[in-house]
Amino acid sequence: MKYSILFVLISIVLIYIRKDNVQRSHTTGQRIIQVNSNHKGDVIEFIVRSNETGHTHSTIKQTIMHDGPCGNTLTNAHPLKRPCTPPVHYHLKQNERFDVKKGTLGYILNGTNGTREINEYLFIPKGLCHTFWSAGNEDLIVYITLYNDQEMIPGRSADSYFENINGVRRDSPSFIATLQVQIGHDIYRCDLPKLFNSMFSKVFQMIALVLGYQIQYAEYTTPVV
């Protein structure tokens, strides 16, 4: 309990130290966007947008090049330290499926490490901690589909998340801005106390919004229709 309260207080201080006033790149409506600014081959392509399915699900295609900072052949970085690897997280309102089209998918699911090869898939029920990375010596191509519960806010699906999280990381890489986008899109970090996710996250969001940290940015977000 005391650690959760301490985390919230520190977060508030950090928010006040740095308001989110940055020049943003305009990537709204683009079909392909870069995952990180260090390697042009690491990209996300929007295959099926939430708008096209009545907001029931959305699918993206992610490519991680073997010879880039997110790959598994030239870097010595631990998989969880690579720029394309999401933090270990869970969803409260979304199930997720990974379909491997090329390469080897490494993953953590509920504390267990494993891999999936080409033409294999990994299904992740909501509530389970997970992350993924490229684990082979060739490029990884994986289709990622998130299925939304009825409680999911239209326009906050995977396509909006990937547009905004990659924009924030590219234009204003701060922990506060990243966390604001994650919480607003049903992504809760497993390295933070559960009490923060269940109780303090809404307070954090409100304070961050007042100070300019958005859940979605018009410069990144394809409008909901």
UniProtKB/TrEMBL annotation:
Gene3D superfamilies given in the database record: Jelly Rolls
Signal peptide positions on this chain: 1-19
Highest taxon in the source lineage: Eukaryota
Coiled coil: none
InterPro entries: RmlC-like_jellyroll (IPR014710), RmlC_Cupin_sf (IPR011051)
Keywords, alphabetical: Signal
Name of the protein this chain belongs to: Cupin type-1 domain-containing protein
Organism: Adineta steineri
